[in-house]
Design brief:
This protein has 234 residues and is an alpha+beta fold. It has one domain. The chain is built from five helices and ten strands. A five-stranded antiparallel beta sheet has the order 1-10-4-8-6. It is globular.
Length: 234
């Protein structure tokens, strides 16, 4: 077999592995309702949106994917571009206002330390990285973003704290520490500045964890090793 043919077989097998993982997962897009009032740090200008997860047809929740879709709608420029995410919380408390959501007890632990972040584009003038991200700008720095709490300072100066700027088209994927039943479960998302960016984005929940990059790397390595063994046998 030619090298090109072998590579095509590896690529196809890798795709099938990914497709097999995806076929085992049930996922659903989330529709939000904006709650009354605002919450957050100082100044407290975080709007809170609620989704009823019990109506989605999923028995349990294990991962959440948030994708920015603002592309110039609201927000600021540079490191503060895109949807500014204050917090992500799941709770069995059914809140009608932002203050209630900020104080609602969590129904499950979200693994922010293991979050997967794909930075979106910055609006000129571009900064070295988006606010609330790690040193290279492609990870979540939750010591700054503090996504477990509705505590964002709604500012774009040195006092900014407590949120993640996702950039235009950015994506954040988080897993729960353990699966949680969706019966009577609500998802709350905080948007810093209350400028409509949540409505322009998309949120998807799933009963399977998002695959970590190391898992995909191991898949690829296994396929390469299998290909090498086939060549040696020829």
């Amino acid at each position: 077999m030619s090298k090109g043919g072998l590579m095509r077989r590896r690529t196809l097998a890798f795709t099938l592995l990914l497709s097999s993982w995806a076929a085992t997962a049930d996922a659903a897009s989330v529709t939000f309702t904006k709650l009354t009032g605002l919450t957050g740090g100082s100044p407290a200008n975080t709007a809170v949106f609620k989704a009823d997860l019990s109506s989605l047809g999923l028995a349990e929740l294990l991962s959440i994917t948030i994708t920015d879709g603002s592309f110039g709608l609201g927000g600021a420029v540079g490191q503060f571009s895109g949807f500014d995410l204050d917090a992500v919380r799941i709770s069995t408390v059914d809140c009608a206002d932002a203050a209630c959501a900020a104080g609602a007890a969590s129904a499950g632990a979200i693994d922010f330390a293991g979050a997967l972040f794909t930075p979106g584009a910055q609006r000129p003038t571009v900064d070295p990285k988006l606010f609330g991200t790690g040193p290279a700008g492609n990870t979540l720095n939750n010591a700054v973003a503090t996504l477990g709490a509705f505590d964002a300072n709604s500012t774009t100066d040195a006092s900014a704290f407590g949120f993640l700027s996702m950039g235009d088209g950015g994506q954040l994927r988080v897993n729960l520490a353990a699966a949680v039943s969706t019966t009577g479960l609500y998802l709350y998302i905080g948007e810093v500045g209350d400028n409509g960016e949540v409505a322009a984005g998309s949120v998807e929940v799933s009963d399977q964890p998002v695959p970590e990059p190391v898992t995909l790397t191991l898949f690829g390595a296994a396929l390469l090793a299998a290909g090498a063994r086939r060549r040696l046998r020829r």
